C-alpha cells in the first residue's frame, strides 16, 4: 500500500518537502471493517489549513500519519454485513491506495451508484464541493429570481456549481476567475452571464469597473471563496440587504494578508455575512445531493476535472491547486 504522510509543517508556503511517500503493508481486516481499493483521491484547499499546528474548526493533521482526504473506490473485502465486494463507496480514505474503514461508525462510508454518475463526480459536483455550493447559495444566500449572484474561484469545484445553481434559480450569475481560458469556460460551457478575469484587472479600481459592467444592478449575493483584494472589491458593490456566504479564503491559506478596507459597508448596506463549514450542516446534505445528483445524471449540471496520474504526483498537484493550476475539480488517480 502506497501512502503519503505529512512529514513536516510548512513555514509560510507549503512545499513538496512537507510530504513523504511510504510503502506499508495492507492491514488485516477486523470484524466490522471494510477494505477499499481507492480509485480517486480528492485534493481540497482545506488540507492546507490542516497542515498547520493552529487552532481551527478541525484538529491539525498529525505528523507522520496518512494525509486526510476524501476518496471514492470499490470494496475489495468486507467484514461488515452492509457492504459487499464490488460496492462503490465514498469516504475519507486519505492519501493512500488502499483504505480500511470502520463501517459501523456512522458516516464513515457511503454507498453510491456509479452507473448513472461517474465515480469521480462523487468527490466533486455530487460530493462535498457540490454540497458546499448548495448550502452556501440556497441556505445562506437564499437567492431570489432576478438577483445578481457573484462567485469567485468560479471555474473551480465549488464555484462552478454555485453559478449553475444560481442560473437555475433565475439569477444573474457573475464569476471571477484567473485567466481567459477559465473565464471562457465559465461563460460558454457553464452558462454564467459574465466572468471577470481578475488577472487582467489587478488594480482594485479596474476590478470594480469590470464588476460594474458585469453586474450593472449591483450584487445581491456573494459566494466568497477567495478573500483579500477580490472580496474587498465585491463588498464595495453589494446592494442593501445583500448576503455574503463566506465559504473560503484561499488567497490567504499560505499566510498572505486578508486585509479588507470596505468593512464599513457591512453596516451601511446592512449586509448579512455568514461563515460556514459544510460538514456542520449534515441535515442539508440529502436535499443537496438529491438536486445535484439529478442535475448531473440529466446532463444539466456540467463540471470539469484535472486528474493527477498517480499518488506520487499528489503533493505537486495539491500545491498547484493553491496556485490555480487546476482547472475544475482536482483529483488524483489511485487505481
Ligand atoms: P477550486 O477547485 O476552486 O480550486 C481552487 C481555486 O482557487 C484555484 O483554481 C484558483 O482559481 C483559486 N485561487 C487560488 N489562489 C488564489 C488567489 N490567491 N487569488 C484568487 N484565486 C485563487 O477549489 P474548491 O472549489 O475545492 O474550493 C473553493 C473554496 O471553497 C476554497 O476557498 C475552499 O477552502 C472553500 N471550501 C469551503 C468549504 C466549507 O465548508 N466552508 C468546503 C469546500 C471548499 P483561479 O485560477 O480562478 O484563481
UniProtKB/TrEMBL annotation:
GO MF assignments:
oxidoreductase activity, acting on the CH-CH group of donors, NAD or NADP as acceptor
Entries under CDD domains matching the protein: PGDH
Q: Does the keyword Kinase apply?
A: no
The organism's superkingdom is given as Bacteria
Write the protein's name: NADP-dependent oxidoreductase
User: Which source organism?
Assistant: Rubrivivax rivuli
Instruction: Name a Pfam family for this protein.
Output: ADH_N_2
Recorded hits in Gene3D superfamilies, A to Z, give: Medium-chain alcohol dehydrogenases, catalytic domain (3.90.180.10), NAD(P)-binding Rossmann-like Domain (3.40.50.720)
- What SMART domains would the database entry show? PKS_ER (SM00829)
Q: Which InterPro entries match?
A: ADH-like_C, ADH_N_2, ER, GroES-like_sf, MDR_fam, NAD(P)-bd_dom_sf
In this protein, which residues make up the domain named Enoyl reductase (ER)? Answer: 14-332
- Work out whether the entry's keyword set contains Iron-sulfur: no
Amino acid at each position: 500500500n502506497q501512502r503519503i504522510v505529512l512529514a513536516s509543517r510548512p513555514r509560510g508556503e507549503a512545499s513538496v518537502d512537507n510530504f513523504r511517500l511510504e510503502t506499508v503493508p495492507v492491514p488485516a481486516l477486523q470484524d466490522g471493517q471494510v477494505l477499499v481499493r481507492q480509485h480517486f483521491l480528492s485534493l481540497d484547499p482545506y488540507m492546507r489549513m490542516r497542515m498547520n499546528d493552529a487552532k481551527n474548526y478541525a484538529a491539525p493533521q498529525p505528523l507522520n500519519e496518512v494525509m486526510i482526504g476524501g476518496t471514492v473506490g470499490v470494496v475489495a473485502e468486507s467484514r461488515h454485513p452492509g457492504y459487499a465486494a464490488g460496492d462503490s463507496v465514498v469516504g475519507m480514505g486519505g492519501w493512500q491506495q488502499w483504505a480500511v474503514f470502520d463501517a459501523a461508525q456512522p458516516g464513515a462510508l457511503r454507498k453510491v451508484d456509479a452507473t448513472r454518475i461517474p465515480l469521480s463526480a462523487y468527490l466533486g459536483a455530487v460530493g462535498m464541493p457540490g454540497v458546499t455550493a448548495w448550502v452556501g447559495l440556497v441556505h445562506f444566500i437564499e437567492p431570489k429570481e432576478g438577483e445578481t449572484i457573484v462567485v469567485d474561484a468560479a471555474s473551480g469545484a465549488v464555484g462552478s456549481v454555485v453559478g449553475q445553481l444560481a442560473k437555475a434559480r433565475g439569477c444573474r450569475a457573475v464569476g471571477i476567475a484567473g485567466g481567459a481560458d477559465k473565464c471562457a469556460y465559465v461563460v460558454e460551457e457553464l452558462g454564467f452571464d459574465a466572468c471577470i478575469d481578475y488577472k487582467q484587472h489587478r488594480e482594485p479600481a479596474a476590478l470594480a469597473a469590470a464588476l460594474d459592467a458585469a453586474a450593472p444592478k449591483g450584487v445581491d449575493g456573494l459566494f466568497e471563496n477567495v478573500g483579500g483584494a477580490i472580496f474587498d472589491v465585491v463588498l464595495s458593490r453589494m446592494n442593501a440587504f445583500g448576503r455574503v456566504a463566506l465559504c473560503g479564503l484561499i488567497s490567504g491559506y499560505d499566510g498572505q494578508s486578508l486585509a479588507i478596507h470596505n468593512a464599513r459597508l457591512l453596516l451601511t448596506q446592512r449586509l448579512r455575512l455568514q461563515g460556514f463549514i459544510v460538514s456542520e450542516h449534515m441535515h442539508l446534505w440529502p436535499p443537496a445531493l438529491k438536486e445535484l445528483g439529478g442535475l448531473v445524471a440529466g446532463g444539466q449540471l456540467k463540471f470539469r476535472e484535472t486528474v493527477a496520474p498517480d499518488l506520487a504526483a499528489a503533493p505537486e498537484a495539491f500545491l498547484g491547486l493553491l496556485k490555480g493550476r487546476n482547472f475544475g475539480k482536482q483529483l488524483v488517480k489511485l487505481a
